[in-house]
Write a structure and sequence with these properties.
elongated, alpha+beta
Length: 333
């Protein structure tokens, strides 16, 4: 009976040991993915910022500029792309909406970001754009991959329509969460005018006729939870200028916007709490269950060996070798 039990335990030990790497290296990459219908909203603020007054064409200091960023999963578009892409795809319709202290629009830039639901790598398909301009992204945007590594990544800049390295700068503790800090600097670059301008009657085409161009630079900072790849905080030191042309009169350039853009405190708290809950699901598949199965399998193996040893000792040398002990012959009186 003990020998049968030890064989059963040995089989279970082998099964549990085999499940450990299968969960981590086979199941997790296939099960972990971004849902296609996800909706996110983030509010950022730049206090004591510089903003161009288009009425006077003079920059002025304002108490606050607010940027509302939304990302909405487009399920219908993702399903359409999946039929030809042959993999799980997420389509995010994003909008960056900037308002001044008076509540009036400063700029409004929509974009469509298409990416692999598992790896976050870009998927190139019809409809990929920034402010109506067709783009071809390389690298990530908005979110890092699951199990983010301590290395540089290519990050897409929507203003400049280019991808550039975003550098890993070290590990930090952010509100009780161990995060990776990344930083990217985009040097002064000529960028397109927004399609929707803040003043009625002014269009990118009318500005272009004056010879005035728009330039932009930023220092972008992200604090990333390495388990989920989700940003728990983000900031930008952002500057925009209008340069040259008759629109500026005798000036070579004017500041259109300058400010230190930071996530609003309530959104930082909400994001940090959300990431803490999501990371437990990832850790369950990548750490808790694989190591748990491995430990359980080792325990079952040890128990099987103990039962086998006891079975052999109970049967004695003959039982261990499979030989029968001969019965004593009767003694004649």
């Amino acid at each position: 009976m003990r020998r049968t039990a030890s064989l059963v335990l040995l089989a279970l030990a082998v099964l549990c040991t085999a499940l450990s790497p299968l969960l981590r290296w086979y199941a997790f990459p296939r099960l972990a993915k971004i849902p296609p219908n996800q909706y996110q909203e983030m509010v950022l603020e730049a206090k004591d910022a510089t903003l161009l007054d288009y009425g006077t064409m003079r920059p002025k200091t304002v108490p606050k500029v607010t940027i509302v960023q939304t990302l909405k999963g487009n399920v219908e578009a993702s399903e359409k792309i999946e039929r030809t892409a042959g993999r799980d795809v997420v389509v995010w319709d994003g909008l960056s909406y900037v308002v001044g202290p008076d509540g009036k629009m400063v700029s409004r830039i929509p974009e469509r970001y298409i990416f692999d639901a598992h790896t976050q790598e870009p998927v190139h398909a019809d409809g990929e754009h920034v402010d109506g301009d067709r783009v071809r992204r390389e690298g990530i945007e908005f979110k890092w991959p699951f199990l983010t590594e301590k290395r540089d990544y290519n990050y897409f800049d929507a203003q400049a329509r280019i991808s550039a390295p975003i550098h890993y700068k070290g590990t930090q503790n952010f509100r009780g969460v161990e995060v990776y800090y990344f930083e990217q600097t985009i040097p002064w670059t000529k960028v397109p005018m927004p399609k929707k301008m803040p003043v009625k009657g002014i269009t990118p085409e009318s500005v272009a006729k004056t010879g005035t161009t728009r330039w932009y630079t930023t220092r972008r900072m992200f604090w990333i939870d390495p388990t989920t790849g989700a940003p728990v905080n983000g900031q930008e030191i952002h500057k925009e200028e209008l340069r040259g042309g008759t629109l500026l009169g005798d000036r070579d350039k004017v500041t259109a916007f300058a400010g230190h853009v930071k996530m609003r405190e309530d959104y930082i708290d909400y994001t940090a709490d959300l990431v803490k809950s999501q990371r437990q699901l990832v850790l369950l598949m990548t750490s808790h269950l694989p190591w748990g199965f491995l430990g359980f399998g080792a325990g079952l193996l040890a128990l099987a060996l103990v039962l086998e040893a006891r079975s052999r000792r109970r049967g004695g040398p003959g039982a261990a070798s499979g030989e029968r002990t001969p019965e004593p012959e009767p003694v004649n009186a």
